[in-house]
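Input set for joint prediction.
Command: fold jointly, output tokens.
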Amino acid sequence: MRSSLNVCIVDDDDIYQFTMVKTMKLLNLTDKIMVFSDGEEALDFMLDNLHNDKELPDVIFLDIDMPIMDGFQFMEEYVKIKPKLGKKITIYMVSSSVDPVDIDRAKKISEITDYIVKPITHDQLTTIIQELDSNGSL
Amino acid sequence: MSTKDSELREQYNKIFIEQAPTAIAMLDKDMRYIAVSQRWITDYKMEGKEIIGESHYDLFPEIGEDWKANHQKCLNGAVDICEEAPFKRADGTIQWIYWDVRPWYVSEGKIGGLLMHTGDITPQKEREKERNRMLEILDKTSEVARLGIWEVDLKRNGIYWSPAVCEIHEVAESFQPSLDTAINFYMEGESRDLMRKSVEKVISCGDPYDVEVELVTAKGNSIWVRSVGNGEFEDGKCVRLYGIFQDINERKRSEMALNKANAELRAIFNSKSVAIITTDDKGIINHFNHGAEYLLGYSASEIIGTQIPSVFATMEGVERFRRDLSQKYGKDPLKGLAENNEFDVREWTYIKKDGTKITVQVTISAIINAEGEIVGSLTVASDITAIKNAEIELLRKNQVLNFAERLSMIGNWQWNTITNEVTWSSNLYKIFNVDEETRLTYDTYFSFVHPEDKEMVTNHVQISLEEKKFPDLLHRIKLRDGTVKNIQLLAEIMTNDAGEVIELVGTCQDVTEQRLEEIKFRGLLESAPDAMVIVNEAGKINMINKQAEKLFGYSAKELKGKSVEILIPEAYSAKHPGHRSGFFANPKTRHMGEGRELFAINKKGKLIPIQISLSPLKTEEGVLVSAAIRDITSQKIAEGKILKAKEELEVFANKLVAQNTKLADFTQITSHNLRAPVSNLNSLLGFYKLAQSEEERADLFQKLERVVNHLTLTLSTLVEALSIRKENNGDNLDKIEFNLVMVKTQEILSGEIMSTGAVIKSDFSKLPDIDYNKIYLESIFLNLVGNALKYRSADRVPEIYVSSGIENGKKFLKVTDNGQGINLKRHGHKLFGLNKVFHRHPDARGIGLFLTKTQVEAYGGSISAESEVNVGTTFNINFN
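tokens >
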């Protein structure tokens, strides 16, 4: 069953971007995938579509290590614009870092639903999308 | 002579008479006027009257028969001259006149009539009478007023003193003074000067005087006199002095006495120490002096006009006063006092304006006038609070002394060595447990002295009496019930003028308990585990224990009374007295020489490391300090070992920390920079296996190749960084000139410099060269200058400035550009991280600064950056 969720990938690694998009298509999870190379690009898009629920993502897979604006810096800005957003957005932090400092930091941010260590498995991805989809349809 | 001639002569005479300046009348034989002078008319007030041809007697009907008879004699040739005679006029007034009446001759022997020449001397006459009258009055009053007159005739230098003046001068009436002798009677100094000046002033200016001066009489009595003087002038020249002279001694003396008494009274009235309050007969206060204001704090204006008893008296006091005096006199208190001419003296409590109570001694009396009527009351009060307080204080002190004697078990005594009388304070009886009625002599005391101490006491007293100095004496007494007490005797020896001992006074204290305490203390001291040294304020050793003897190698006897500095090594002993004073200024328990190593020196001169704690010890000798001294030789050795171990551990820990930091960096690098490509590889491999078409496989293979290349680069960077970190042993250092490195860098980057038109300047004049790894330094230059070119601003021609120098003793290198700048607030923390990029620049790989930092840190340096977005960046490298 293909969901209608808007999935957003924020990561500067083009190989990762490629594998994520390909995996989601392979698993037939969703068609609507947005890709941004750093936090600033993603934030700019969201600011442009503050009330455009159709365009705003339902779920964001956020990398930590990016140029210009990294994952944590993006979260700082996101917290500021969150009250203005018309839509509930679920955010997963996805990083290759196993550094406890990064993990603890991410866990302290309540807007982050979970911290996922790369590579994200097919099962993880499927579960996340399906759970979100069923919650959304309730 | 012819008749015609005689007529003519008569005519001349007439004219002559009419023109005469004096009063002259020419009469014929029948006493009828032939001619009169103008003066005659005025003298006898006959203006406007017809005179010529009239009878002299008609005009002056008052002329008596005696004068008429005289006229007849003159008509017969006599001459009548009178110098003065009263002429009673018809209107009753007396006119004093002189006259010259003589006949005039028609011819030889033939009388034609009379010539009358008169003068009115009435004014002169009246003056004379006035003067006589005055003199008479003066003579009469002079006796009463001791008043005399005097005159000085300056022309003749003759002086006249009236009898009273002579009497005042205490000279005989026949005394003939001159002006000088008269003035010399005045007391030398002020009086004489004043008189001389006054007299001169009269003579020169005519100013009269009236002075009171002192005079010394011929008999040597000094008296006060009043002298009044004036001058008489003729043609502007003083010819006569005259005046009055009065003995005013009594008046002056009483006046002076009165003045003095007045001044004294005023002083009393105005004095601060005595309060004086008076009332009128109605009891209304009409005087409230300065002393009262001062005593009671009320101002006079607040109190004057109020009724007594006033606010400052207490009702109880007033009632007590009224009751006592009513009982005494049986009538109103003031009347009683007045009638008996008495006053009431007692202590009152007055309340000051501020509410404080004071004790005053008050005298109240009635004021009566000459007729004996009460016209008011007088209250005189003086503050005796201080006296009262002193009395109370004295009583209290006595009590305290008694109390203190009892508490301290001290008694005082006196021994009169001549009468052998002895007195003891009551507490001393208690100490000796003797009835206070016991008669005392020296033997009484001596009988109590402990048998074993008797000889010592006798000797002590003997020597003391001889040397007239009594050193403190400690001995035992044995009471009748057998109790033994320790007694400390202090005494002062009194001698008479001849230096013989007459009395001993002193104290006697039961120190039994103190002795016990001392013994206890001694025991305590000996049982202490540390060496104990007790020192007094002067730094003299008072007492030491056995442990101290052992530690220092001296016996207690050797050290007692010695300066404590004997135990302190020379290097420290100079400063020690200062430290000791500091301790005694603020005595409290503390360790000595906090934070410093302390040493003592023993008898053999060996230094012993010690630890000292000091405690103040309050004793009757003043504050002592007890020093507990511990030999820490073995402790020192152990400490040294621990310190060494600690230092070694620190070095080890530092190494571990450094390793840890590197490990942490490595964790960071592995998780971010190695895991990511590896996971990408896995994903791509997964897809590769599932790939359906050759095309898809080729695409994935291309991607795999990219990841592998990236991974290879990362790994080689890491290997390089690790090798840099390893090689920092300083072996491969060369002296490198910055300038040469700069030239080489510019050669490498020449293509980019040309295409961007960059301006590169450098200044290495302050630090031309440095000892460094040549390859690293070239790499640092290449990275920093290369970055400056790579991240140039699109709007500006790149300008790069490279300089070296020394700041605060540290060598530095600085690279400044005018490029895009970096938001350090956002990226500062990862500026020098591996694979960290901050620009969307296609060549940004995040390797250059990571390696630069590694190369700088390899030789202990540091790198930092300052930047402003769109303005430029400066990298600072601090070497070593």
